[in-house]
Structure formats: structure tokens, C-alpha cells
Amino acid sequence: MRFAAASALLLALALPAVARSQSITVSGPAPTLHRLDLTYDPRGAGRLTGTQTIDFVNRGPDPIDQVWLRLWANGPNRCSPAHMSVQVDPPAAVEPLQVRCTALPIRLGQPLAAGAQSTLTLHLNLRGRRARDRFGRSDGVRLLGYVIPQMAVTDARGTTLPPYVGFAESFYSVTAPWEATLRLPARLRAATTGSVVDERVESGQRVLQASTPHARDFALAIGRWLTFSGRAAGATVRVHAQSRRNGRRMLRVARRSVSRFSARFGAYDSPELEVVELQEGYGMEFPELVYSNADPYVVAHEVAHQWWYSIVGNDQYAEPWLDESFATWSGARVAGTFGYCNLRRPFRGLPPHLRRQRLDRSMRFFAPRPTVYTLVVYDTGACVLRWLERTIGPARMTAFLQLIVSRHRHGLMTKADLLAALAEAAPGLNMRRFLRLAHVSR
């Protein structure tokens, strides 16, 4: 969720081979382990420095001599200034930044054969932002979302390098283990992706170590807050808030969301989930960490993203509805805050000039049209899923959702994968009618 207010196929769906569709195959470099050693300096807008080591494997059929990293921290300001700079240990070498400073090509010391492994050691220097943003701040809390370099995904389309979209998401990454050490002043606390395995204070400095066996990204929030914790579906849920009232209310919603989503979609298979309260804006999701205001619907929506993007990944620039429509529908199921929805014709709830828009458009279309994006992908996408549940029934809807999660857990899903799972879980569904009502292309 954004930080601020932001014929042939129909026949193929009946075939068993398509119903067994699997996750996207990565056909280039893919990380196998990230190791972070970072220090946070709170002076000014804040600074994060240190090293990132990326072990990776060439999953493609041919040798490669270059990898691409996404430096999303440079996206909000479009290079003016560039907030993240990266150096790399030789024999690898950095080349000029591209895609408005968000894409960094790195030339390898020698070609890496198909199936071979290698390591990059990066030296990171991140200057903070004062803006109220997922990379910025919320009152006294520093938000460091999508600031750690990610390896770009190479799939059947080639290496994907979409532009940054400030009010929405452009992100696309594969899961890998992360091990992180973070140093910060002792008076501050940090919420991160991963489970805390050690935390100590020495010489006025807090040293925190965290790890996770599978995450698409590593995000942080740093500040001072009240912490409220509880258990849900075998996980520890922590809420970091500015007031007891908000903290306790957010914890109740977060725990209820984890419990209900685990029961209906499939297990939340991480030991911890951190929720950081925002004083402004709406919310933002990261693996095992979300930012959210105190509104129960927003909390539930952001927690739902742990399934719809963190567990079941997708190309958020190419197919934003695969996570946002599902998270909106899921969050409303928990919070009971469905807006207007025409359950006979979902798109009839839109203004007349928008009723022919497609749900499955990419951010290339939606980026200059944020209001259209919200109305179509969030509101109408959730209404389409309400129509689908009423049509096939709760039991088949649950089977459909669980099939998606089990088939693509910690992998990547496309529209074709989703439609194949739907055909398998609800064989009596008139697929032609569904595609027409959902405004999803064949």
C-alpha cells in the first residue's frame, strides 16, 4: 500500500498442464544470502553506512558478466540528490547509474558460468530524508523502507528495470536469507525485518542482530516508542506506538489479522512480525515489518501484505492488482470496512468514465493516474474478489487462496498462475464470465 493518499487462454485453462503452473523461473543472477553490517547515525536527517555482502548464483542458461542492483533509495528525489551511493570490492566494478539513479550495473571480474556462484561486497552510504515517506520520517521515527540494494530479477522477459513510483510500488525481488548487524545509539530502538537473535548495549551503543531465512527485502524503522507484544498463530507480534491506546488497539488488530489469515490462506512462517505506528499517511509493507497508522483497516491491510507480496511475490510494477487487490479484500474481511461494492457488476461502482478500465493494467498506465489506480486496483479489485467469493462459495474461495499460497510460497506469481489455480480450485466457474466481470484480459 502507498504511504500517502495517494479464447486461447480460456481453452488452456481447462488443461491439466496449465493447472499445474508453477512460480516464475529466474533465469539470471539470484541472491542466496545477504549479510548486512550497518551503523546508524541520527544526526541531521540520519545516515546509514556499512557493508552488504550478497552471495548469488547464476540461474540462467548462459554465462553472465554483469548484475544489476536496484537502489530504490534514489527514487523519491530522482537523483536530486542521490541518497544512496555504493562502492564494490574488486575485481567487480560499478558502472554509471541508470533509470534515474535507481539501477546500478556492476561489471563482474570475470564471466560467471551457468549454475556457478559468486559474491559481491558492497560499501553503502545512505543519507536520510526529512520527507514524510516510507524512506523518510514520521514524527520522531526514521523510516528506512526500500533503502537496502536489491538484485534485479531476470526472468523470461529479460532483466526487469521499471522506474520508481512514489505513491505506489515498483518492486520485484526474490526471497533469500538475511543476516544483519545494526549499531545505533543506545537511546534508540530499531524494528527490522527478521527475528532478533541478540541485542546488547555496550559503550553507549546498541548492537542488534537479526536474521530471517526468507525475505524479499530488509527494512528498518528507528526511533523511541512504546512496545506492545503478543502471540498469534505461533508468531510473536510487536507493535511500536506513540501511545498506549493506539498500541493496544493496533496489537489487537494485528494479532487477529495474523490468526485469521494464517487459518484461511496458509501459515505465516516467520517467527516475528513488527508493526510501527505512523503519525501521518497510511501504511507500507515490508517482509516481517509494516508501517501503519492506527486505523484498524490499514493495520489489517498491511498485515495482509505479508501473504500478498511477502510470501506470494509478484512484479508489482507489471501486475499491481495481484497484491493490492488481494490485500484490500483481505484487510476489509478482518476490519469489516468494505466500501460500496456492486456485487452484480463490480465496475459499475466506478464513475462512468472509468467503467471500462482494466483491472490488470500495469503501473505504466497507473503511475500518472493515482486516483484511477486507487479506485480500480484497490476498491474495484477488492469488489471483484467479493463477487468471486459469493459466486464460488467460501469453501472454494479458501481452497483457491490456499492453493496460491502453497504453490507460490516464497516464489513469484503471475496472472496466468492465478487463473490456473482458480480453474483448478473452482472447476465449475464460468471463466469467461469472470474475466469479463473482472476486466481481466485473456
What features would you describe in this structure?
- The protein is of the alpha+beta class and 442 residues long.
- Among the domains are: 8-23 and 316-438, Orthogonal Bundle (Neutral Protease, domain 2), CATH 1.10.390.10; 27-190, Immunoglobulin-like (Sandwich), CATH 2.60.40.
- The protein is built from ten helices and 24 strands.
- The protein has helices at 8-12, 16-19, 244-265, 296-304, 321-335, 363-366, 370-392, 394-408, 415-425, 431-438, and strands spanning 29-41, 47-58, 64-70, 84-88, 93-94, 103-112, 117-127, 135-138, 141-144, 150-151, 154-155, 158-159, 176-185, 189-192, 195-202, 205-215, 220-223, 226-232, 235-241, 272-277, 283-286, 289-292, 312-313, 411-412.
- The strands form six sheets. It has a seven-stranded mixed β-sheet with strand order 4-7-2-1-13-16-15, with no helix packed on it. Strands 18-19-20-22-21 form a five-stranded mixed β-sheet, with helices on one face.
- A hairpin with a 5-residue loop joins strand 1 (29-41) and strand 2 (47-58).
- The two termini are 26 Å apart.
- Residues 5-22 have low confidence and may be disordered.
